[in-house]
């Protein structure tokens, strides 16, 4: 059983920063992809950033210059450092893990950015 537990969400003013963390536990294949998605009210869930176990990263165009994804493979943890937050970053942020044909999601952490 694989579990993903996010932390670090909360309230920030525009221009602020937040760091999200996600710890994965259970039987996890070492060659995996971890990612952060987000879903704003009334919108579809969208990819924010992803990182392979080898460290290759991809970012959504809308956040590319304002977020950094990183991971600690020894701790099965992925981080999302967000800078220069905007009100449109307000969403529930979900941690994602995939290996082989299996996919797992965290329960989500709320990020709210006030103007």
Q: What topology emerges from the helices and strands here?
A:
Layout (H helix, E strand, L loop, with lengths): L2 E5 L2 E4 L4 E8 L7 E7 L6 E7 L4 E3 L7 E6 L4 E6 L8 E9 L2 E4 L3 E6 L1
Parallel strand pairs: 2-11
Antiparallel strand pairs: 1-3, 3-8, 4-5, 4-9, 5-6, 7-8, 9-10, 9-11
Ranges with pLDDT <50 over ≥5 residues? none
Q: Tell me the distance between the termini.
A: 40 Å
Q: Report the radius of gyration as a whole number of Å.
A: 13 Å
Kindly name the structural category. mainly beta
The average pLDDT score comes to 96
The shape is globular
Strand content: over 45%
The number of helical segments is 0
Percentage of helical residues?
A: under 10%
Number of strands: 11
The biggest sheet amounts to: 7 strands, mixed
H and E string = EEEEEEEEEEE
Written overview of the protein:
- With 115 residues, the chain is mainly beta.
- It is built from no helices and 11 strands.
- The termini are far apart.
Summarize this structure briefly.
With 115 residues, this protein is mainly beta. Helix content is 0%, strand content 57%.
